[in-house]
Design a protein that fits this description.
The protein is of the alpha/beta class. The chain has helices at residues 3-16, 22-38, 54-57, 73-76, 113-118, 123-129, 139-147, 381-389, 394-411, 416-430; strands at residues 87-92, 95-96, 109-112, 152-156, 166-172, 179-181, 184-189, 194-203, 209-219, 224-231, 237-247, 252-259, 264-273, 279-288, 293-302, 308-317, 322-331, 339-348, 354-363, 369-377. The strands form two sheets. The chain has a ten-stranded mixed β-sheet, covered by helices on one side. It is globular, with a radius of gyration of 21 Å. It starts with a helix and ends in an 8-residue tail after the last helix.
Length: 438
């Protein structure tokens, strides 16, 4: 029995153990039918032409953990942003870990999707937002919708400024031989509200894990959302991260993606504009080696006039690793005065490293300012020579140049403790101790 057959045969048992109403049951059934018809994505699909899931799907994953697995705080504390106070929604093998978490209902909701999906008091919110911006065509998103039960539920009322960041962390203990996780997050940011969110998926030992995550973010008028994704997992971990963002008038949303670890990582990041004067920022840094594979697939759908979007992705690839950037800017006929920018820069550090880049513009409006660019190259030998002449060792000179290459995304991190953490992660990936923080 392959993984698709295993999932389909497990659905009835899953629903029997889930307290759900009729409307949500219909949503799940429609999503399951879509997955059953289309199956897992393959390289025959244009959006997946550079990434194959075949090797990942051969593993015999447990769909539901056999036991509730606990972890000790000392074993996972280093993965928290412990330098500052944060709200925390922590999950271990897909199960909420209350003793590691710090949730709240005091003026805002930072709690569980399982509560939101099953408790009557949340029904109006779930009916209005759940699965409303997530793609109905992306089969892995449909698979998550069919089996979604747990994750983070964040609801920020209008005019609320969340005073401390929110961390969403999914741990895999590895106590299962192999595990499939499908976290589902719903983030609602009310009019004129502000929030900072950090998301991470982390394995604690070398057993295989496949995480198929979906996050829906709704930014209402004048909302400000600052979202960070830290991907620095073990080489036994595979992640498909589907993020869908709905923006309304004058909202500002930025998403930073830092991809350093894991076997195969696929980031699907989709922005949809439903109003004027919207600002969207997408930035990413990828540093990979060995046989790692990281694929960034981005879409910014401009559906209204006078909006801006800015994309800037940097990728450093060594050994036999593969980096992919497949980014699209889509401008509707009505979206006049759009200002859209897309840039992808890549550095290859070995002859066996691979970059596949496909920047795209689809523009149906005639009064716009849109541009894209892509570079693939190696370190500047003249700059290396200049630094070596001034007594800087080769390893440190190389690291300094790579830091400078990555610096634009690092500079725009608005949480100082996270900025310091990312700087140290990059130094570790480059194998140097530079003795300063960017």
């Amino acid at each position: 029995m392959n993984l698709k057959e295993k999932l389909l045969s497990s659905f009835i048992a899953f629903e029997e153990h889930v307290d759900t109403d009729a409307s949500l049951h219909e949503v799940r059934m429609a999503a399951l039918k879509n997955f059953e018809e289309k199956g897992f994505p393959s390289k025959k699909e244009e959006a997946w032409k550079y990434t194959s899931l075949n090797s990942v799907l051969k593993t015999d994953y447990s769909i539901f953990p056999k036991n509730e697995n606990a972890v000790e705080l000392n074993d996972v504390r280093k993965y928290f942003l412990h330098e500052i106070d944060t709200y925390k929604a922590i999950f271990v093998d897909g199960v909420f870990a209350s003793f590691l978490s710090s949730t709240t209902h005091d003026g805002l909701d930072v709690c569980l999707m399982s509560s939101a999906l099953t408790k009557p008091k949340y029904k109006l919110v779930i009916d209005h937002y759940f699965n409303k911006i997530a793609s109905q065509d992306e089969t892995l998103t449909s698979l998550n919708t069919a089996f979604s039960i747990e994750g983070a539920y964040i609801n920020i009322p209008k005019n609320t400024v969340v005073e401390k960041p929110i961390e969403i962390i999914n741990f895999s203990t590895g106590k299962e031989h192999a595990l499939l996780l499908q976290p589902r997050n719903l983030v609602i940011v009310g009019e004129n509200a502000q929030v900072q969110i950090i998301e991470r998926h982390q394995s604690l030992n070398g057993h295989p894990v496949l995480t198929n995550a979906v996050t829906e973010i709704f930014a209402h008028k004048y909302a400000n959302v600052d979202y960070y994704k830290i991907q620095n997992d073990l080489l036994s971990a595979n992640l498909v991260d589907n993020t869908y963002i709905s923006q309304h008038d004058h909202s500002v949303v930025s998403v930073h993606t830092f991809s350093f670890g894991g076997n195969l990582t696929r980031n699907n990041l989709n922005f949809y504009h439903f109003g004027e004067r919207i600002d969207s920022t997408l930035k990413g840094i990828t540093i990979i080696g060995e046989k790692q594979h990281v694929d960034h697939y981005t879409l910014v759908h401009h559906g209204a006039p006078n909006c801006e979007s800015h994309q800037n992705y940097k990728c450093i690839v060594s050994d036999s690793a593969t980096g992919v950037f497949n980014g699209k800017i889509y401008v509707e006929k009505e979206a006049q005065k759009t200002d859209a920018f897309q840039q992808n820069n890549n550095i290859l550090l070995s002859d066996k490293a691979t970059i596949n880049a496909k920047p795209q513009l689809e523009i149906f409006a005639d009064d716009v300012k849109c541009s894209h660019g892509c570079t693939i190259g190696q370190l500047d030998e003249s700059a290396m020579f200049y630094m070596r002449q001034r007594g800087i060792p080769e390893k440190e000179a190389k690291a300094l140049l790579l830091f400078a290459f990555s610096n634009e995304a690092i500079e725009s991190i608005r949480i100082p403790a996270l900025k310091q953490r990312i700087t140290k992660l990059i130094a570790t990936k480059l194998g140097v101790n530079l003795g300063f923080d960017l």
